[in-house]
Amino acid sequence: ELKVEQNPLFLSMQEGKNYTIYCNYSTTSDRLYWYRQDPGKSLESLFVLLSNGAVKQEGRLMASLDTKARLSTLHITAAVHDLSATYFCAVVWGAQKLVFGQGTRLTINP
Amino acid sequence: DTAVSQTPKYLVTQMGNDKSIKCEQNLGHDTMYWYKQDSKKFLKIMFSYNNKELIINETVPNRFSPKSPDKAHLNLHINSLELGDSAVYFCASSQVGGIYTGELFFGEGSRLTVL
User: A43 to chain B, minimum CA–CA distance in Å?
Assistant: First the structure.
């Protein structure tokens, strides 16, 4: 059974700082996704990473994938308050089964 | 137009009752899912249908019965509701193959509270 673990689970940071969320998974997979969830809202797709070494960037967020290490990172650059949310990574396993990490609750303080 | 829509958004009911949540997607996707998000925000897949055929059925009590009348709809019926069923239930859809990457598109969620 695929296990997906995120680290840290809670992150409180100051505006303007940089930080990284880590996503480790236990078995080989060819696709990894990052999602954002605002409180009381649905999940919004941020990035789709399809191959080893893939890197995607959108604004202050950058995601990367190392399939050999079974590790993805979500890097936040010069954080702003609007980025406060819960971030999930999710990995495909088997027949279209998406297994989610526990989520990282990010709070960015002014 | 909402891509994946669920109804109702909120549902408060007594233990022992039976309730249904409906989901519709207008994205033309061939696969639909139900996920449960518990109070700790943990998301776990319950069911998946591909072109009306059940392909994933996780360890879910048989009080939960999904039904897919066509590939654009996936409903969830829950019998004999229990306190532990309180959660947010998310419907999602996806398409894999060709230019599609298989990412899930989620509905707004249906918050079920069992009293």
Answer: 6
Distance CA B81, CA B63 (A): 8
List, in order, residues 6 or more apart from B94 with CB less than 8 Å away. Answer: A96, B29, B31, B33, B100, B102, B103, B104, B105
Return d(Cα B65, Cα B95) in angstroms, integer. 23
User: Mean pLDDT for each consecutive 10-residue tract of chain B (115 residues)?
Assistant: 90 97 95 93 92 85 93 96 96 80 90 97
With contacts defined as CB-CB under 8 Å, which chain B residues touch A29?
A: none
Please, are residues B92 and B33 in contact by the beta-carbon 8 Å criterion? yes
> Is the pLDDT score of A83 beyond 70?
yes
- Whole-number percent of chain A with pLDDT over 90: 81
Between CA B70 and CA A39 the distance in angstroms is 32
What are B100's two structure tokens? 């599609």
* Virtual torsion, Cα B104, A8, A64, A74, nearest 10 deg: 80
